[in-house]
Every structure is written in C-alpha cells, then in structure tokens.
Write a structure and sequence with these properties.
Length: 324
Amino acid sequence: MTLHPPWTPTDAVGEALHVLRMSGTFYCRSELTAPWGFTLPAMPGCLWFHVVTAGGCLLEVGHGARELGEGDLVLVPRGDGHVLRSDAAASAPSILAIPHEMPDSRYAVLRHGGGGAPATMVCGAVRFDHPAARTLVGLLPGLIHVPVSPLTDRLRDTLRLIALEVEELRPGGEAVITRLADVLVIQAIRTWMATDAAARTGWLGALADPQIGRALALVHRDPARDWSVAALAAEVAMSRSAFAARFTALVGEPAMAYVTRWRMHVALDRLAGGDTVARIAADLGYRSEAAFSRAFTRVVGEPPSAARRALAAREDLAQWAAAG
C-alpha cells in the first residue's frame, strides 16, 4: 500500500518566485547607433536587467566582459555598476549625463550614438519588496547571462513581445513593457535555478527539498505562529531529531534560529513601511515590545529605533540618487 503525505504538496521554490514582487525603479528603451556607450551606476538593493532587442553590444561588469547578441538577456542581480557599449573602444559616459525623454516618471527613452550600426535595448532596474525575494536575489551570482537557445523558448516569447512593443510604442506601451520586463526577470531567474548546479545547494536547495522546503514555506507564510522544532517536524511528518538534523544540514542553521531571523527580516520590512514597534511585536507573536526589541537587537545588531533611522536615511539617499 502506498502512503501519501498528510498535506497538499507545496512548491516552495514556486512560492519564493511568487513573492518576487517588483517595484520598478527605472525602465529605459534605448535606440543606439555605433559608436555608443554608457555607464550605469551601482544601485544597491536593485536588480539591473538588459534585453538586446536588435543588434549587439559589450557588457563590462567587475573585471569581466560579455558579448551580447540579439535576443540575449542579462541580469546584474545585486545592482553592481557596469558598462554597456558598442565596442571596447567606444566612450561610456554616465547614463545620468546623457539626455533622454521621460514619457512618465518610471520610463525613459534614450537616443544616443554616432550614427553607425543600430542597436536597440530595453533596460531597467527593479527592487524587490518581500524579504524572501531579497534573500533569493542575494544568493544569485553577480551576473546571469541567458543567451538565445532551444532551452529558452518561453523567454524568447516574452522577448519577442517586448521587441514588438519597442518597435512601435503605442498608447499604453510603457505599461506593457514594464509588466513584460517583470515577467522576464522571473523567467530568467527560474531558468538559472533549473540549469545551474549552484541553485541546488544551500537555502535554494533546501527550498526544493519536499519536506524542508515545505517547512520553510510554512515559516514564510506565518512567521508569527508559535513555532517549535517539534511543531515543524510534525507538519512535515518527520521525527523531531531527523527534522532538526536535516534542516540544519540543508539550510545551514538550526530551525529556530532561522525562524527568529526570518521574523527579523519581516520586522525590518515593516519598520521601513512605518509600522510601530509595538504593532510589529504583536503581529510577530512576541508577548511584549521589550521581548521583541531584545530579539531584534540580538539578530540585527542594533535596536529597532536605530534600524528605522538607518532605513529612512537609506531611502532618502536612494531618492536623491534617482532624482539626480
């Protein structure tokens, strides 16, 4: 007789991708003619993406360079500064110094270059709002290059839709491109997770584990629940000792340490959104504001009031940089 697990199977990897809710910081449609080039600034906390819809270019990030061709997609997941240019000899001024049109506050059109061979691109920087999304993005490599191949048919379908919108920008085209770009980023990350061995280790590998992945998903969904190792083990039909050992082996820390750290991820998000410490403490299951503050300080390294001031200062700096 086949025994089935006493729960509906949960795709924890799918849940992690589901919370990749993006807030667009900057989108740009670029019409370029060789020689051309520009430097994109570092944007910590954001993910840069570039889609080559026609022509080709050279991307330089860190100490490496990568040739991109028509239909290629590249992600710079941690927002590192980088350079795009038609060839290695082309000058690359700051993107902020090149005139561009702004059809709205989130979308720009850039026309730049010396009149030679044409190239078109859609570029953007997006920010992720959910703690699980930021954890996932933090584990991605510094550069993800998805060239055109038979393995990327779905990506190519999205790329074709973006290219069509770029060729003839109709009413509402900006909204279509930005939404397609969000889909494209998720597809690219999913492709990387399915094809790169690095995605099958650590936290990402734990997400894919049928039992530990379900336990992680339960914590992510309901961090305020009075979790214990025994309660999590029971949810995934494992013995307490087997669950504790497997969780630590796959995730890299004990289950209850992960639960506490996850709560503090959520708390930081709530602090940035303006919630009071008392409300956050209550919503995360702490019996008192003092107990929450002690746990927060232990995990984060500073009390909630100091963290709130730091988050506000960082947001002010990001807005200043965007306005510049």
